[in-house]
């Protein structure tokens, strides 16, 4: 599937749903936070509406899609970088205390992503990363470029377990 078509078709609607590990962490923290692969900002908007970003010093959203970045700029006051999460030259080394990266690692070169996270995360910082886990009983609607069945046509891989 064409990337621009994907950005127009697969919208990430705003929600009030926040992963418990993220909300628990942010309750008492004053952090510089980055959302890598922020999409349309669903998680960041939920965090803001839930009051979890009141103590945040800086909030940055990064996404590859210029269309999604433009939507983010319309609905938020966060810094937005339209960049590949595996290489974010706009962000200096050791910039963030807390990084969230949800439903992204399956779309990109995981080693490059993890290296970039290591570069921009401060020593002692925290990473929350999430992906889907492919179960044998799931329904798979799409074929990837290499002909494998997948939940999403842009997945490079789908993990078989949390490990």
Short descriptors:
single chain; 163 residues; alpha/beta; five-stranded parallel β-sheet; globular
Low-confidence stretches: none
Q: Count the helices. How many?
A: 5
- Using only C-alpha atoms, the radius of gyration works out to 16 Å
Mean pLDDT: 84
Helix residue percentage: 25-40%
For the biggest sheet, the summary is: 5 strands, parallel
The general outline is globular
End-to-end separation: 29 Å
Q: Provide the structure class.
A: alpha/beta
Give the strand line-up of the largest sheet: 3-2-1-4-5
Please report which band the strand proportion falls in: under 5%, 5-15%, 15-25%, 25-35%, 35-45% or over 45%. 15-25%
Number of extended strands: 7
What is the chain-wise order of helices and strands?
Answer: HHEHEHEEHEEE
Structure in words:
By secondary structure, this protein is of the alpha/beta class. It has 5 helices and 7 strands; from the N terminus they run H-H-E-H-E-H-E-E-H-E-E-E. The strands form 2 sheets. Strands 3-2-1-4-5 form a 5-stranded parallel β-sheet, with helices on both faces. A two-stranded antiparallel ribbon has the order 6-7. The longest helix is centred in the C-terminal third of the chain and has 11 residues, at 110-120. The chain is globular and about 45 Å long. The chain starts with a helix and ends in a 13-residue tail after the last strand. The relative contact order is 0.16. The mean pLDDT is 84.
Sum this structure up briefly.
The protein has 163 residues and is of the alpha/beta class.
Describe the secondary structure blueprint for this structure.
Blueprint: H1 3-9, H2 20-26, E1 32-36, H3 42-49, E2 58-63, H4 66-75, E3 79-82, E4 96-102, H5 110-120, E5 121-130, E6 142-143, E7 149-150
